[in-house]
User: Fold this.
Amino acid sequence: MYIERGFQMMDKYFDEIITKIEAQKKYVCQKGLTADEIIQIEDFYDIVFNIDHKNYLLKCIFIGEGFYDWRNDAKSNVKKIKEMLNWPLEGILFDIEHNNYWPTEIEIQPQILEEKKNIFAEYYLNNIPKLIPIFSHRYMCSEPQKIGAPVYSVYQTDIIYYGDNIVDYFVKEFRLNIKTNYNKWERDDTIYWSQFC
Assistant:
């Protein structure tokens, strides 16, 4: 279900990360998802968590504003998660309409706005690996399935690295005083979304 080495590396830091985030009195760490729950969630939302994201969710589900409660199947929560799964596409479509954005990988650019949006939406759904929210508008990509994937901050096509990997991300996002060597791993810049950074 997960790569053992990645889980061990995660586990090395995550107890301290969880303790220090909970100490901020804004978030509570609930029991992590089971392997079966991960499969059910991936099937329900038609997503695939990457290895680091999956290992984090197996360890802990943070509850609090900004975090995503993947175990909660209430209609309002499901709606929120689906909206955030669609947020990256909606943001790019906004920039196509209002900021004259057009991806270089699509050679033909129609002149009619609705055609442009339809062509890009089809290309997006068929060719671009999904971004999956981890906190607020911070995302991890579903691909590639290897340890050390970056975390992105996504707002339309204004996309930046917010962590070279998931541990680096939590340390930066929540300003944790933790010394790690996890952030010395080489960041993977080959992911589709990295071209915006």
The chain has a mean pLDDT of 90.
